[in-house]
Structures are given as structure tokens and as C-alpha cells.
């Protein structure tokens, strides 16, 4: 499916995870094209980045969300207007009757966008080549259960295990919409082999943990992804991965995983 392809359907039991590998976008020299399609206020936000890489990443992110949303509705790219809550979580302000929920993340070389037909969703992506794993970070921010699991892992496995916890925590905070107002130690994750991650709430104010589903994915050998969906674990959720270069090409990979009541995932 290319940029002029048919409107995508998004089932009530489905989440789409779109991703852009930024190196092909840079190679195609699409910056001028994207600048011509974005509104002035979004261009100004991108231009505030000091380094060219930051400006390009911002342009790609802004183009991605507009092209993604239009792929479901058929609306022109210019119709979309956005707002953010007090913690910075973005949402659709116009068209006001659009039921779609979305969330964005980026890391060096990758921009991702998760879309749901109505459930709150959060996504986080990290480049595994970045050195993030640090025991002092885990000791300070992670729940004791997570620290214990991290320390029990073989030393060579700890950097990836750290990123698994980190991306899942970020995805949950983004889906919840309250950002870092929720201490990271107020919830923890279990990573059972061959099954979907499971969250535990240590703060009763967070509600019912069984109303949240999680999925993690590796994209190639470089990127670690985590997805949070506010949807009861008793309801199966399909995930569709979609690779795109906004306004140029889109490759739809039909359902690649299913989050189910049993928590299993391929």
C-alpha cells in the first residue's frame, strides 16, 4: 500500500504500531517536502532544536502522526489539530469526534506511533546501542522486585533486561497520561518467558492492574519496543506492525502478535 492506497480499517480489538526507520528518510532528502506540508506552529517547534538531527526527527514525527491518522479517515493532512494534557500527553483536538487514540516515541534512528480505536495506549522505543543500563539507575528508580530480577540475570543479559523494564515503564506512564507524577516504584513488571509482561500495582490509587495489557518487541537487532494498552486482560488484542516512510511508502504486516487472557505471545 502506498501513500494513495485505500483507507485502513482498525478493528475494536486491534492496535496498530507504525514505525519509521529514519535513515531512508534522510537518504531520500524529504525534509523540504515535509516542511511544505506542516503548519507553521509545528515547524517552529521543530526549528527550536539546535542540531539538524533533532530538527529532522521532529519533522518526521509530525509528518508520521498526520499521515497515520489520515490513513484511517481519508482526511487531508492539514485537518488535524492536537492538544496535550498537563503532563504532556498528546491527543486529537480536531476533528473533535475522532475516536482514535495515539502515542508517539522516538530514539536515534527510529520513530514509532501506536494507534488504538478507543483505548488509551502508550509506546516507548529505545536504541539497544545506547548505554543506559546502570545499576544505580535501577536501584534508584525500579521497584525492588525488578531490581532483584535484574541482578539475577547473567551479566551479559542485563543491558537488554534493563531496557525491557525501562520501555515497559515508559509505555505505561505514557498510556496512563500522568507522566512522572507516578513514581516508578509504585508499579513493577514481571517478564515470564514466552508470555506477555504483567504489571503489578503497589499503589492502590493506580486501580486494577488486570485492566492493562502489555507487549514488547525487538525491531531487528537494534530497537527495543514496549506497548501499553488500557484494555482488560480478558479481552484479546491483535497487534499489527506497519512500516512506513510518510507520504511515500507503507508496508502493512498483518497481525504479528496477539495479547490474550492467558498472556501468551508468539
What does this structure look like?
With 266 residues, this protein is an alpha+beta fold. It has a single domain, classed as Ribosomal Protein L22, Chain A, CATH 3.90.470. It is built from seven helices and twelve strands. The chain has helices at residues 22-27, 31-37, 40-47, 52-73, 135-141, 144-152, 158-176; strands at residues 14-21, 81-84, 90-94, 101-107, 110-116, 121-127, 187-190, 198-201, 213-219, 223-229, 237-245, 249-259. The chain has a five-stranded mixed sheet. Helix 2 packs across helix 4 (52-73) and helix 3 (40-47) runs antiparallel to helix 4 (52-73). The longest helix is centred in the N-terminal third of the chain and has 22 residues, at 52-73. The radius of gyration is 18 Å and the shape is globular. It starts with 13 loop residues before the first strand and ends in a 7-residue tail after the last strand.
Short description:
This protein is of the alpha+beta class and 266 residues long.
What is the fold's blueprint, element by element?
Blueprint: E1 14-21, H1 22-27, H2 31-37, H3 40-47, H4 52-73, E2 81-84, E3 90-94, E4 101-107, E5 110-116, E6 121-127, H5 135-141, H6 144-152, H7 158-176, E7 187-190, E8 198-201, E9 213-219, E10 223-229, E11 237-245, E12 249-259
Parallel strand pairs: 1-11
Antiparallel strand pairs: 1-5, 2-3, 4-5, 6-10, 7-8, 9-10, 11-12
Helix pairs in contact: 2-4, 3-4
Amino acid at each position: 500500500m502506498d501513500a494513495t492506497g485505500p483507507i485502513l480499517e482498525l478493528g475494536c480489538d486491534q492496535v496498530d504500531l507504525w514505525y519509521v526507520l529514519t535513515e531512508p528518510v534522510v537518504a531520500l532528502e524529504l525534509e523540504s517536502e515535509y516542511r511544505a506540508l506542516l503548519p507553521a506552529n509545528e515547524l517552529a517547534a521543530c526549528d527550536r532544536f539546535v542540531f539538524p538531527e533533532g530538527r529532522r526527527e521532529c519533522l518526521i514525527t509530525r509528518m508520521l502522526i498526520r499521515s497515520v491518522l489520515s490513513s484511517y479517515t481519508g482526511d487531508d493532512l492539514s485537518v488535524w489539530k492536537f492538544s496535550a494534557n498537563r503532563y504532556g500527553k498528546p491527543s486529537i483536538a480536531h476533528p473533535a469526534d475522532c475516536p482514535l487514540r495515539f502515542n508517539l516515541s522516538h530514539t536515534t534512528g527510529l520513530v514509532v506511533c501506536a494507534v488504538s480505536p478507543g483505548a488509551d495506549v502508550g509506546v516507548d522505543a529505545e536504541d539497544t546501542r545506547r548505554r543506559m543500563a546502570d545499576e544505580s539507575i535501577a536501584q534508584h528508580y525500579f521497584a525492588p522486585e525488578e531490581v532483584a530480577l535484574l541482578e539475577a540475570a547473567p551479566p551479559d543479559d542485563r543491558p537488554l533486561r534493563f531496557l525491557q523494564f525501562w520501555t515497559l515503564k515508559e509505555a505505561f506512564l505514557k498510556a496512563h497520561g500522568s507522566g512522572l507524577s507516578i513514581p516508578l516504584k509504585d508499579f513493577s513488571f514481571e517478564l515470564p518467558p514466552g508470555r506477555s509482561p504483567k504489571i503489578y500495582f503497589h499503589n492502590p490509587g493506580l486501580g486494577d492492574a488486570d485492566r492493562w495489557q502489555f507487549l514488547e518487541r525487538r525491531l531487528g537487532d537494534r530497537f527495543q519496543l514496549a506497548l501499553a494498552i488500557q484494555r482488560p486482560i480478558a479481552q484479546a488484542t491483535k497487534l499489527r506492525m506497519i512500516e512506513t516512510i510518510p507520504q511515500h511508502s507503507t508496508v502493512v504486516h498483518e497481525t504479528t502478535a496477539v495479547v490474550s487472557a492467558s498472556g501468551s505471545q508468539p
